[in-house]
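2 proteins. here.
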Amino acid sequence: MRQSRQLIILSTFLIFTFFGCRKSNDFTVPAPPASPIVPGVPSVVGDNDHMLMGNPNGAAFTTDSINNYLMRKSYYALSYNSTKGTPNWVSWHLFPLDLGGTPRQDDFREDNTLPAAWYHVQSFSFSGSGFDRGHNCPSGDRTNNIEGNSATFLMTNMIPQAPGNNQLTWNNMEMYIRSQMGNTKEAYIIMGSYGIGGTGNTGYATTISGGNITVPSFIWKVVVLIDNSNSDLSRVNTTTRVIAVITPNTNAINSNWKTYRTTVDNIEAATGYNLLSELPVSVQNVLEATVDTL
């Protein structure tokens, strides 16, 4: 009898354990919380990554990279040049949902995520220079919410840009790119500048803010336009539309941005960058040698 009772108890324990384990397996394990956005750490991976097309000049998140400091932010990524007080390039993904009705915030401010020992460009650093605080990633590309629009007003996203260039030619190009989105397109965009010396409202200058900020001679942009879908990188091929532009940083400039179209190869030759490095070489060779004509 005692042995039978022990067998019953043991059987009951095994049944309880078996069904208890099955029940616990029916629960979904909650996902870990999203990682915070910090410089040097990818904000996203795969589609929507602001650097999906590559790291043009091997920027690194280390204070040793004083002239090529990688900053990955929530709404764009950039390589910052502390000696020049400007970004080398800024890269971002533009998606229809990035566009909305949020008004321009105009809250220009220093970027306090830069190393403290470096010169920090202030909101007033361009005052009296004759140059605009020219956005790389435009305010107009981030109108879905206040946070996104405000993020574009960090001074690490600015270059001294001739008003005629910024307010006419460049603005016209930015509006054209946004007009291509609709609900069917998305774009990967890289913008930068090179050279020393431009002409603003008060004439020619090589630097402003007591020599702390370099005025570039030329401003460039590369736009990769694709249909709105998934697996973005794999869908870029030799027929993909790529727009490349180089404009002089002057007021005496044609307001029609299309007159300044060029090739990605020409921008790479001028800057030493590899702008679409994540694409297969065979695709790069075709796209980078083509001048957009649409």
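next one coming up
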Amino acid sequence: MSDRRTILLAAITVLAASTSTLAAPDAQQMVAASDAIRNPQQSFSVTTTLIEYRSGKQVDSNVLAVWSKPDSNSGQYRTLVRFTAPARDAGKLMLKSGDDLWFYDPTNQASIRISPEQRLLGQAANGDVVTVNFAREYQAELDGEEEVTDGERKQRHSHKLTLQARSARATYAKVELWLDARDNRPIKAKFHADSGRLLKTAYYRRYQSEMGAERPTETVIIDGLDTNWITVMRFSDYSPRNIPEVWLQRDYLSRFKPE
């Protein structure tokens, strides 16, 4: 009888440990799943519209044509961005390849290295408009579960994660990320500087079916100090694309011609 009890207790212990392991989600896998929701996992193009608001009034806007291609070696994207509006910026280019980010101005025909954290428009930084997989740039840790208000003012049960930059090349030193506990949809993120200062808060919303998945087609970015300073990023015209390798070379920027 004693042996049976010992065997039974051992079986229960193994089962409990197994159940606990299954119940504990892997933070890095969760971030990777949310990346696959935000970004198609193949080469694609998308139109990104940036709109800056101050105290509820629109003060500026920008329209970008974006081509992104996953790099089979790093798992990160290489991205070409072409400014299409307003007219003063039309034809300017930005290229993200590996750890390098380049800006090309056809007026002086020069390409210069730029910083991903530099502001492009309002609260949108250069690093925000190129396609990025968080799981590749950050180490994730699960902080627990929370009820959080999403961008549609609805309550969502979420997993809260903290993402620490793997290197100084990442756009942000730390990201707090809230994912829907049911399906890892990104709900909300807070972006921090090296000092720990809150730079901005982003809400991912207006999910629509794009290239085989429900993706957020709008990101609302709120300044970390002035909540009346808001930038909206809208994503439209998703399309699978065969992106030529030459488009993603710095030396080709001066010869690039849109289709």
